[in-house]
Amino acid sequence: MTETGIIKIAIFLIVILFLVKPLGFYIKRVLCGETTLLDFIFAPVEKLIYFLLRVKPDKEQNWKEYTVSIIVFSIFSLILLFFIQRFQQLLPGNPQNFGEVPGILAFNTAVSFVTNTNWQAYSGESTMSYFSQVAGLSVQQFLSAAVGIAVAAVLIRSFARKNTDNLGNFWVDITRITVRLLLPLSFILALFFIWQGVPQNFNNYVTAQTLEGAKQIIPQGPVASFEAIKILGTNGGGFFGANSMHPYENPTPFTNIIQCICIFLIASSLVYAFGLMINSKKQGWTILIAMIILFVMLIVPMYYFEGNINPQVKKIDSSLSEDLLKNMQGKETRFGIADSVLYSALTTSTSTGAVNCNLDTLNPLAGGITIFNMSLGEVIIGGVGSGLYNMLMFVILTVFIAGLMVGRTPEFLGKKIGITEMKFVMIALLISPFCVLFFTALGCFLPSVVADLKAYGPHGFSRILYAFMSAANNNGSSFSGLNANTDFINISTAICMLLGRFVSIIAVMGVAGSIVRKKIIPPTSGTFPTTGAIFVVMLLVCILIIGGLNFFPALALGPIVEHVMMFSP
Amino acid sequence: MIKSMLRSFVLLIFFTLLLGIFYPLVLSGIGKLLFPKQANGSLVEKNGIVIGSSLIAQDFVQDIHFHGRPTLSDASNAPLSKAMFDRFAERINTLQNYNFKQGKGVPVELIMDSGSTVDPDISPEGAYFQISRISKATGISEDKLQKMIDFYTKNSFINLYGQKRVNVLTLNLEINSYLNAIERLQPKR
């Protein structure tokens, strides 16, 4: 751990806090149907879409209609993506002549991209045609992100409105979010990536004659366009198997820090937009600050543990100085320790799941913190949209607990929190821990899974735990030692991804549907304040206790035991 | 329900065209126009033949060349893997003997595997470490090699993010052109 590393993290956070306001303001205008910059380009495109869909943009839906639209749209997305992969050998844009993607793998991948998870049991450069990558996977990177933001918008509206059933129109929301927010930002970011060295072409793979006369095959492809939405939409699925470690996806320290910023950008601005839309900027800041405190609380120990020298490595040659023994295993020279830790902390605390170093080879507790980041339900800024709506579930739970303690009916933003809401909140909060623990336990009992691990003891357990944690929380990264392309892992992670995404979306929609009907009660002197320091502390305690109680035993069996073993003589 | 299905179908077709075809194609066009080298993978050509990409590591084994990072040979890379520690110990030993640096500390990125398996860079220290051996093999003075490394060392971004590094292929191209120049100066037999 060095001062420079701490300064890197601090400057990163300051930049984020500066960007949150302007982008949050823009997102608010997008979600509220107001005019924005470049209206003369966007408005005609949207009009065309509304015309093709026969949608009246001002006709709003109630929570059931909205939810049905989301589910139907997602099922269609799944089917389309599945068949694009299955028929890629017949489709254009396949210069390497890849065959069809095997059925179970194609199913897993389709689920993974539609649920914004981007868990990858394949390597892009040896499996997917260019067409599958851009017209299949990349399209879902946009649309799954847009769905997440739309759900968050619905939840925000339910608090901002009163005595109504109207929560907005799904087709309008997804169109505006994609056309006005995701596409233009991706376009700019992709251009920046190309400038820095990320390829963007549809050429054949290049066969090079190396300086020493060997043959080297260099994959090409439309990487920049893919990379931009991968980062902005907190998707995380790489064009190449090596993800953002690969120099074609992340060529310089400059692209690395810009990726870091863009991973946080939309999700954190959305929290500011939330404050604007409910007419209480202070409430927005309270939640954003709680998220950032959690982030700092976890990245600092992670950086500390990763900066430590593994005592077992020291034993190899005790004459070497400590600087020569830092953990560069699985890391890239251009990034080094601090930038790799920053990136890993960011991608596991948002549900991005991109990696710029091999997470499997992190020191045990640093790897443990990546798991813990996810186990909190991706609420530390979190995925685009999903971070905010999951965090609001925790906020409602906190308000409820506080209400029980002072003996008053809990309310949030003037809305009474009743039994219906609490039932939905508990479903939303408990579905992913249930999936994680159930399937991890199941995996440990299956000899075929254990035989595939290539590491026994606590690290093998961590690999299984990581896989299901990542799938159920729609993160998508993995400990690379696990062989993910087996029937059991493909099917079980797909189930986790589907339940983790859609059960919680339906529960959140249920909360919104119930809340929006209620009247807004003006605050009185007895109302429990949901802004300010006390509430931040309550919220953090609530999140940490739930995350801790659910997963501490599992973490103790994996990373914590492994950490202790590191010191064995 | 039926209405939602129709809308889903039409919207997916529309967005597949817009986001899946139009967006990457337009970017490819603009990319090739503004940054042709980068958009095509930063390929390096020599006498009209592609010899690699400056962003993708290639294997160097000859004595006259700088060597890059080792790459993961198997998946046994757990933090406490015995196989991994044995690999490190063997590499330290081999590198010290090979580079005439017995008893000297080996820069860490030459011992530990790269994550991507195609990391094109090493640290300047990692390059300095190989100078004696290369100087002996090529006849280029150590002083000149040192200057070459310093010249091609790239700084971290705004002196803060990332690490100092030097591209292995760039260094080796420089060595090759230097050797060629010497060859040309010598009288033909």
What is the fold's blueprint, element by element?
The complex is a heterodimer of chains A (569) and B (189).
Chain A: H1 3-31, H2 39-53, H3 63-86, H4 103-114, H5 124-127, H6 130-160, H7 170-196, E1 206-209, E2 215-218, H8 223-232, H9 253-277, H10 281-307, H11 311-314, H12 336-349, H13 364-375, H14 386-406, E3 411-412, E4 415-416, H15 419-445, H16 447-451, H17 457-472, H18 487-515, H19 533-565
Antiparallel strand pairs in A: 1-2, 3-4
Chain B: H1 2-34, H2 36-39, E1 43-46, E2 49-53, H3 82-98, H4 108-111, E3 121-122, H5 124-128, H6 131-138, H7 142-152, E4 166-167, H8 168-185
Antiparallel strand pairs in B: 1-2, 3-4
Q: How would you concisely characterize the structure shown here?
A:
The complex is a heterodimer of chains A (569) and B (189). Chain A has helices spanning 3-31, 39-53, 63-86, 103-114, 124-127, 130-160, 170-196, 223-232, 253-277, 281-307, 311-314, 336-349, 364-375, 386-406, 419-445, 447-451, 457-472, 487-515, 533-565, and strands spanning 206-209, 215-218, 411-412, 415-416.
